[in-house]
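Format notes (please read before filing issues)

Several people have asked whether sequences and structure tokens are stored in separate files. They are not. Every record keeps both together, in the order shown below: the sequence lines, then the token lines. Line labels are part of the format and must not be stripped during preprocessing.
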Amino acid sequence: MEKVRQIFLLDDDKTFNLIHTRLIRSSGYERKITSFTDGNIALSTIANALLTGNGDEPDVIFLDIHMPKMSGWEFVERLDRLLLPTQHNCVIYMLSSKIDDDEVKKAEAYPMVHGMIRKPFTITKLQMLYETMRHAEFIVDE
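Then the structure lines:
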């Protein structure tokens, strides 16, 4: 996988954000990783980056499906409305400890969602993801 400029981690669990940040760094990723526990703040950050052209919009978002303030699905819907068709370069991977068939079908409806990953991340899952970044198997699992 080519190194991306920026990764966003969006999970209401700070511990998962910390673990996933360290795991991504240990895999050789040396650029910017920004973690959020609130989808509204992440959306504001993306909107600001697009308005100012500062280059801080993410190339990849690892997004928890089940969050209390704003679900991962609501985040994807709002991000889809925020972006112009020419700005849909962001790749999203949905994260969940439990993935069911309905969630897989729902994810397939969003072109920017490139796959689903069962939490927690492992180095094996991350390597599988790197190998299939643009042509991802829909569920990355061990």
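For reference, the curators noted about this record: The helical segments are 14-26, 39-52, 72-82, 101-108, 123-131. The CA atoms of residues 77 and 120 lie 24 Å apart.
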